[in-house]
């Protein structure tokens, strides 16, 4: 289990300090799928980065299976089995897709490169020997990043807006793959998303607002709140139509 207790994060920048997270208390259990959702700028990615060690807590504790990881580096946390697929994946110049997946999976791995790329909707033959440079589209980069997380047998896998840039056809396969990862390896999965189809995967939905946890609820409750009206052209309550496939999004 991964547990955050009273976690706060303040970042020192050129224009003074910014308190990005305040008093975060969360428990992520094994084998469960969590979806974190909330308005833009509410702190979802910051929670993910704090779990991964990219941001260091300025208050509170983070415990993974009774090990205190609060002050551990990104590398140490990665070794313990925490993985984070970025919202905007970085480029890895000079590395081919094959090298990158091998690096992610670690030495002596037995990963099936073709299967991994298939799971994210890419054709292995077209991609494996290509260098990960600026010639890749945003959607391609995103899928390769997700494949690198699927390559690892993780305790906690965090996917930051996995749907961004992924077409509708590949999306179906991707959600099945994420759900299978959860069953096959007992991985705790944390998905950051505004999408109804992602929320449908959730055992629990975590609501984030203004750097705090504003609620923990079920997918049923959230989906009730964001269902479209029968006319199919409006969303209820505090939601609007948007996104690439014109879904209802939580404001
Ligand atoms: N390194 C940083 N320096 C300064 N401010 C930061 C930093 N990281 C995050 N913030 C601020 O903290 C707030 C939360 O950002 P975060 O990226 O966590 O939001 P989010 O909920 O993931 O948003 P989105 O849905 O738009 O991706 C924002 O106001 C952001 O500008």
From TrEMBL:
UniProt keyword Oxidoreductase present: no
Key words of the record: ATP-binding, Nucleotide-binding, Transport
Domain ABC transporter: 2-235
UniProt feature coiled coil, ranges: none
Molecular-function annotations in GO: ATP binding; ATP hydrolysis activity
GO cellular component: plasma membrane
SMART domains named in the record: AAA (SM00382)
InterPro entries in the record: AAA+_ATPase, ABC_AA/LPS_Transport, ABC_transporter-like_ATP-bd, ABC_transporter-like_CS, P-loop_NTPase
Lineage top rank: taxon: Bacteria
PROSITE patterns for the chain: ABC_TRANSPORTER_1, ABC_TRANSPORTER_2
Protein name: ABC transporter ATP-binding protein
Biological source species: Sporotomaculum syntrophicum
Taxonomic lineage of the native organism: Bacteria, Bacillati, Bacillota, Clostridia, Eubacteriales
């Amino acid at each position: 289990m991964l547990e955050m207790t009273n976690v706060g994060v303040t970042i020192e920048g050129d224009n003074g300090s910014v308190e990005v997270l305040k008093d975060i208390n969360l428990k992520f259990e094994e084998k469960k799928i969590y979806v974190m959702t909330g308005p833009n700028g509410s702190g979802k990615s910051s929670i993910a980065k704090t779990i991964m060690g990219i941001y260091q807590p300025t208050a509170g504790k983070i415990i993974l299976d009774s090990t205190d990881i609060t002050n551990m580096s990104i590398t140490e946390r990665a070794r313990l089995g925490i993985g984070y697929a970025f919202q905007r994946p970085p480029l890895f110049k000079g590395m081919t897709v094959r090298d990158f997946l091998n690096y992610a999976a670690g030495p002596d791995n037995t990963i099936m490169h073709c299967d991994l790329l298939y799971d994210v909707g890419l054709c292995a033959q077209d991609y494996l020997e290509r260098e990960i440079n600026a010639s890749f589209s945003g959607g391609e980069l995103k899928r390769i990043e997700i494949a690198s997380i699927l390559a690892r047998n993780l305790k906690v896998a965090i996917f930051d807006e996995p749907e961004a840039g992924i077409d509708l056809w590949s999306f179906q396969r991707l959600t099945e793959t994420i759900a299978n990862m959860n069953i096959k390896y007992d991985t705790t999965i944390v998905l950051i998303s505004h999408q109804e189809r992602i929320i449908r995967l959730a055992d629990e939905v975590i609501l984030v607002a203004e750097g705090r946890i504003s609620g923990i609820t079920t997918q049923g409750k959230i989906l009730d709140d964001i269902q479209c009206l029968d006319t199919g052209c409006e969303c209820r309550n505090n939601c609007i139509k948007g996104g690439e496939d014109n879904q209802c999004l939580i404001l």
